[in-house]
Amino acid sequence: MVIFRSSLLSNTKSLIMDYRNMHFLRKNAYINGQWVNAQSNAVFPVLNPADDKVIAEIPDMDAADAKTAIAAATESFRTWKYTTAKDRAAMLRRWYDLCVKNQDHLAEIITAEAGKPLAEAKGEIVYGSSFLEFFADTARHINGEVIPSPWPNKQIMLTRQPLGVVSVITPWNFPFAMITRKVGALLAAGCTCVIKPAEDTPLTALAAAQLAEEAGFPKGIINVVTASRKNAPAVGKVLCEDPDVGCISFTGSTHVGKILYGMAAKGVKRVSLELGGNCPFIVFPSADINHAVEQAMMAKFRNNGQACVGANRFLIHADVFDAFVEAFKNKIIEKCIIGPGYKAGVTCGPLINIEQATKVKSLVEDARGRGAKVVIGGKPALEHGTKFYESTILTDVKPEMKIYGEEIFGPVAVCHKFNTEEEVLEIANSTRTGLGSYVFTKDLGQAFRMSQKLEFGMVAINDGVLSAAEPAFGGIKESGIGREGSKHGVEEYTDIKYTLFSALDK
């Protein structure tokens, strides 16, 4: 399976598996330019999801540590906001160059802590680094406006200014790219940040911070607070409610996003929320079925289904349903190779943790017990470990089944039949989330109608991959607020200042 359209790493054997020799494996948090322990000296283990082996023990920080990090970011903002766009761009470019130079080492860390196959991990580094490259260019194009005045002898000017300290809370599924997409944008705008990475995948964040330090970012500009699942709520509360924080940027579940949004509301803080997806993948009779299946493999099995823009509901026209499902099954047999991420040829690694594996198993068992048909897969791949699950296709799924309306976040494709355009629009839009959607058709008019009528922030026509640095990434409804990537992703971290110049004739 081609993931992020990248090639396999050449040094797959080198990872089996002495973590002590892993480049950029940091075992301390990063605050105010220093690699530090938690004030309590508490630590927690980071595990490889493929075999539950401990990769490293790192600081288990609490609310006091989070406050220290915010204080450092606040102090550094006093000078950072006055740096020139040219200087910020140069540092971002150096960070990009270092990430590209060290992409194999960074990919090893992702494979170790997130379980991704090496090829896919390297693809994430290429993808994530592209945001640093893009925002290095964008930093020099954060423009204001001069507006024609309604009054004589007066001039109106609008300028964009950095809004301050940003709390960056990132998920485990793309531990590098979700940092670069947020941090690259806010640094370009002139903000500083405190990053709280997911407890399952903090090592990638620390490696990225080390390369940022080498790129020349001053102390306090980027801070990384690591915390276990136990301490995460207390740290998150500080990151959302501290008065020195100007914005909360979060990617994760809609449930957690609502909690953070409520905390941010207490201080009327800016939020940038990228939340749940439940994305439909729609195939019309005019579609090239072989192409649609190839794209379905990427849309569904990227990161083993653990992606917010992963296809969740496959809505296939009745005229091509059987042909699509059969081709999809055959492609899974050919391309979905389960195993630990460091093993050559593997395309589907473990799910991130036992909770996620249990959820996927429960959803499929509930559907099977209520009459759903398993076309392929349908059970844990226990011969590989406790967190591996077979690549699965389900049909005959009914609304009363839990899996019908829930985002799966695993390697399970649920295929439904439809007969008319109006019917598929009703099914696709019948969700409170609205992130991404995929449509396959050769009818140009139909493509435009679907783009207009689908209630999603993003629509891909005849493609299974939406994400890049250049477009504005984000959803509507309960899928979030704001956009990431593009110039709009930088503008999320700015305030507009209106200056009126008067008495110009004096």
From TrEMBL:
Gene3D superfamilies hit by this protein: Aldehyde Dehydrogenase, Chain A, domain 1 (3.40.605.10), Aldehyde Dehydrogenase, Chain A, domain 2 (3.40.309.10)
Keyword set, alphabetical order: Oxidoreductase
PROSITE patterns: ALDEHYDE_DEHYDR_CYS
Stretches assigned to coiled coil: none
This protein's GO CC annotations: mitochondrion
Pathway annotation: Amino-acid degradation; 4-aminobutanoate degradation
Single GO MF annotation: succinate-semialdehyde dehydrogenase (NAD+) activity
Keyword Metal-binding attached: no
Domain Aldehyde dehydrogenase, chain residue ranges per copy: 35-498
The protein's Enzyme Commission number: 1.2.1.24
GO biological process: gamma-aminobutyric acid catabolic process
Family matches, as Pfam families: Aldedh
Keyword Oxidoreductase: yes
Family: Belongs to the aldehyde dehydrogenase family.
Protein name: Succinate-semialdehyde dehydrogenase, mitochondrial
